[in-house]
Amino acid sequence: MEDRLKQLQAEALEKIEQAEDLKTLNDIRVAYLGKKGPITEILRGMGKLSPEERPVIGQLANDVRAAIQVKLEEKQEKLSKLEVEQKLAAETVDVTLPGRPVRTGNHHPLTAVIEEIEDLFIGMGYTIAEGPEVEKDYYNFEALNLPKGHPARDMQDSFYITEEILLRTHTSPVQARTMEKHEGLGPVKIICPGKVYRRDNDDATHSHQFMQIEGLVVDENIRMSDLKGTLEVFAKKLFGEDRKIRLRPSFFPFTEPSVEVDVSCMCGGDGCSVCKHTGWIEILGAGMVHPNVLEMAGFDSKKYTGFAFGMGPERIAMLKYGIDDIRHFYTNDIRFLKQFNRA
């Protein structure tokens, strides 16, 4: 029995010395010191030995186990250090290599125009208001002086989800909701940017989903001249100080009087293909808030007046950057987007 234990010790120490990785070392540990290993079997058979042999063999078995355990720990520490050194060598970074340039993206032209418009109106004291894209018929139409059956509803062919729920056709519902929250007390001074949806065939100038920015001011003694002055500042800041605007009579159910707003063309009035040789380009619709809209939102129309305007950022971006097809904004063509430097 003694010879067997000494033989096991010699075999184990030799294999430990030859081990080249931690997995092999662990296999040796299990083979010699595990529950099914030869040393454990010898200890389990101690009952068959004579009383005189038991203490001798027991002590020797423990000494062999201890010697193997010490050798395993020494080898494990050595292999662990070696493994770390090899890993560090494999992951060494040459800090003298030139860095890889980080390619920055561009602002989408539509995003750039929207942010420019937002910054302009924030500088004029406006706040940004938002509302749901899935809207109630009441806020989308009825609260804006468009009762059920009104013929002007046909101008905005809508995506209805139920009879009373639809995808909003303009951001005007945000104005109605904001006025309602004010509970008849002014002032209100907001712009409402966001997506809107209409049943339209996609072509170079139309899309079934597009952006819109609307503005609203409600307070005492608000006049048409305030609207014109605001839009003049807007046009000059966005298109250039030399630009002029003109107001043409129009009709919108939620404003009275209503106007279409044109900005002078970059051709200086000489006439070109952009302005169709008129010298003017239509950019938005506007007007004084209809008394019915004020009353439905809880405002006293004899005390408060207001103006509203609405514009399409796609239209403005197309004019500002000379883009000839609205579909370019939504096709994610990297060649198109690379043309616009990050602002």
Can you describe this structure?
The chain has helices spanning 2-18, 22-33, 38-44, 53-90, 109-123, 137-140, 172-182, 224-239, 291-296, 313-321, 334-337, and strands at residues 127-128, 134-136, 165-167, 188-197, 209-219, 245-252, 255-264, 280-289, 305-311. A seven-stranded mixed beta sheet has the order 1-4-5-9-8-7-6, with helices on both faces. Strands 2-3 form a two-stranded antiparallel sheet. The chain is 41% helix and 19% strand. It is α+β, with helices and mostly antiparallel strands and 343 residues long. The longest helix is centred in the N-terminal third of the chain and has 38 residues, at 53-90. Its EC number is 6.1.1.20. Keywords: Aminoacyl-tRNA synthetase, ATP-binding, Coiled coil, Cytoplasm, Ligase, Magnesium, Metal-binding, Nucleotide-binding, Protein biosynthesis. It comes from Calidifontibacillus erzurumensis.
In spatial order, strands of the major sheet run 1-4-5-9-8-7-6
Percent range of helical residues: 40-55%
Secondary structure: number of strands: 9
Range of strand content: 15-25%
The averaged pLDDT comes out at 86
Per the CATH scheme, the topology name of the largest domain is BirA Bifunctional Protein, domain 2
Give the C-level CATH assignment of the largest domain.
Answer: Alpha Beta
Q: So, CATH architecture of the largest domain?
A: 2-Layer Sandwich
Class based on secondary structure composition and strand pairing: alpha+beta
Contiguous runs where pLDDT drops below 50 for at least 5 residues: none
Number of folding domains?
A: 2
Helix count, per DSSP?
11
Oligomer: single chain
* Biggest sheet record: 7 strands, mixed
Q: What gyration radius follows from the Cα positions, in whole Å? A: 41 Å
The fourth-level CATH homologous superfamily of the largest domain is Bira Bifunctional Protein, Domain 2
Element order: H for helix, E for strand: HHHHHEEHEHEEHEEEHEHH
Shape: elongated
Distance N terminus to C terminus? 86 Å
